Amino acid sequence: MSEVSAAVALSLPERRAAALRKGKTDDTSRTRRRRKRDEEVLNAAAKVFSERGYSDASVQDVADELGILKGSLYHYIRTKEDLLFWLLEEVHRDVEEILDEIAEMDGVNPLEQLDLYVRRQVVYNLENLKRISIYYQDLDRLSEPRRKHIIERRAEHDRFITSLISDAQAQGLANPDLDPRLLSNCLFATIIWTYRWYKPRGRASREAVADVCAKFARAGIGGAPAIEATSAS
Amino acid sequence: MSEVSAAVALSLPERRAAALRKGKTDDTSRTRRRRKRDEEVLNAAAKVFSERGYSDASVQDVADELGILKGSLYHYIRTKEDLLFWLLEEVHRDVEEILDEIAEMDGVNPLEQLDLYVRRQVVYNLENLKRISIYYQDLDRLSEPRRKHIIERRAEHDRFITSLISDAQAQGLANPDLDPRLLSNCLFATIIWTYRWYKPRGRASREAVADVCAKFARAGIGGAPAIEATSAS
Amino acid sequence: MSEVSAAVALSLPERRAAALRKGKTDDTSRTRRRRKRDEEVLNAAAKVFSERGYSDASVQDVADELGILKGSLYHYIRTKEDLLFWLLEEVHRDVEEILDEIAEMDGVNPLEQLDLYVRRQVVYNLENLKRISIYYQDLDRLSEPRRKHIIERRAEHDRFITSLISDAQAQGLANPDLDPRLLSNCLFATIIWTYRWYKPRGRASREAVADVCAKFARAGIGGAPAIEATSAS
Amino acid sequence: MSEVSAAVALSLPERRAAALRKGKTDDTSRTRRRRKRDEEVLNAAAKVFSERGYSDASVQDVADELGILKGSLYHYIRTKEDLLFWLLEEVHRDVEEILDEIAEMDGVNPLEQLDLYVRRQVVYNLENLKRISIYYQDLDRLSEPRRKHIIERRAEHDRFITSLISDAQAQGLANPDLDPRLLSNCLFATIIWTYRWYKPRGRASREAVADVCAKFARAGIGGAPAIEATSAS
DNA sequence: TATGAATGAGGCTTCATTCAT
DNA sequence: TATGAATGAAGCCTCATTCAT
Question: What is the four-CA torsion angle of B219, B223, B225, B230, rounded to 10 degrees?
């Protein structure tokens, strides 16, 4: 854990790290301005990386997108990789939030939990297409320690969904003949792959896509359809 | 179309292209040796590109893998991109073959066709993990004309599967409430994503994976399970 | 000479230079605070330059050492080179003081003067290791006019020692067969090189080192040993 | 030792290292041409580094000196540091050779050995002023493992000379009152410092300088002058 | 005084590609 | 076919310095 936080800390430009160490976490206007700028930087990186791919995108491209000079960008980052890492971290934070909400739901059976999970996750992916596409295209461009950091968190995620499927099978809500580990991969496939085919300007709304994915996955693991045929349009 | 074939022609090393133009498709020992070497080159490229990603892999890396010098590699290729293009073409050739076989099947209902398609395709993917992973990771690194060439062929593919789903729905073999275009994406997701999670040295055999994927996708589009519970081992 | 003083003047931060020109050499508390800060700045620079070498040390490094930001450092300096120049000037001022004291000694023969000179100079060097090491490693990093300024003063130094050796030879106190110009270089070598091998935490005290150096150099130029075998501890 | 050779091996450009591994050490004209070019590269680096200092010299400068492009230089080196390392290694090889010859001398007392050592070493230094000046100015610019490699070899050197002085003292050939460890430093000072004051176009020949240095050092450690007053002119 | 954002130049290195041998 | 030297463009990063706040 300390290893990991070191990796994160190390990624911050010297001065910001120093400021943080001194406990300057107050919400002065300076800090707020700074945070806004950081967000802009990440957005520019997300745009550029998703369009050209991390490896083919240059620091120059990101700087151009921001309207500053290449050298100036290094006020906000230590290395180009920082941008990728921060982007992936953000995604992970959000995704874990979704998982946590699902995990904490009471009085809902595992099949419904999975259904909801798929819907939420798909909607999130489609709302964050750029970052998600980077997440799935460029994770391997990360240096080893950071890659590990992300991958390990993903593994937990995996275990949780697999156990939900197991539970559903145990309760007779899903086909018990299929290996839940393999099924979870199929379920993830359904969710994740959306970033490759969804067209924001296309006919189908995000909710419509989520609905199809949820139904596909639910039926796919052998679950009965939801009683109320509420299909989001 | 002529644009495209120009792109292809241009991509071949001078002598081979010339030979092809002259219709020299004979099978002399020289030609055979040549073809074997080409295959080795592509295999080396497949290894290197799949490990490091096309953009991060260097021509030097491929040459190293072959045990020759960078300069020597240019006897076989005109540009680095050639390697990527040829690799993707190979994949497409194979994939179209699978599709053609399925399409030509007589006396089989669309649901069974889809089932078989998923199985064949998944097995193929798992048998060609490196190339498939390049196909899905690095297609966008291709220059525009070549990219278009590949993408258009992929679109036909897409249309065919979508029509199979439509047919299945029309024949009451699949859930008619879901948009077949969206369903086809989910089906592709199930097939394609395998390259991201399948571990060649893992527990599950390729056929076992194909079986789960096929059942997941079949149920996912709302199809009845196959009567004979033949689970491939 | 006026060139030189221009160089010096230019090297001082605006306000200090202005103050000096107006003859404000008073000792107000502000001035004193100021001077203390300047000293801290030079110490920080001395530390950083001696550790990393002038060229490899960054203004950022010096600022870090002081615990301020890079931009803030520019309140005290005009350019990075200023720091180097001031440091070298300090050294020269001190060294000339030593030389002057020796030169003004009455009733002491040249051999004794040389002996004393070596001792004093070695002790000074060892007490100011960082600055001395910068002096001998990084003088050439100075821009031409400033470099000349320092080098010329060094030449005077050289001439004086050479003449002391000549005198000693003339008085039969040193080997007259050796060129005093070459001998003076050997004598300087003995003194200067200490900065490269002396370990502050080592066994030998500064005085012990000075004693050995003095005896080595004295004997080296062919001088009889001092009668009283007082070896400083 | 294997660490060290790894450091050396790692410093060679990929292909040359590979060639060496394959045992291609024959003396073909290619190999000879190559070696000549390598020598030119090192000479260019020696010139540039000695003039501007390693840190301030750019790879561009070295390439300019060679009349090739910056990028082309990387055919011969892996990093800029390689040039520095190879240069320092060369010096060390030569210097060790001198020491070995001295060490193997039979029937010569330690004082004479020291005398000869000083002469040979000074002449060598003056004949290789550029490289020697780099050696003493820029060793610390080397990365840690390589720096250690060099420094350790230097330490052996040091021990040998110290032991020669001890022996001379034991045999009544040198002043036994002075610590031989400190004396060896003074002796080295005499030899090394020459690179800072010797002017190739000056009055004194290299042998004359060597003669003065040898006599200075010999007398410095308290040794009797050589009987034959052969002063090299 | 101090801050921190920005500049712009330059440095090291990589790399696809060419070409004479 | 194979080699290896060379090219030239581009990429990542550092840094001294400036300036508005």
Answer: -80
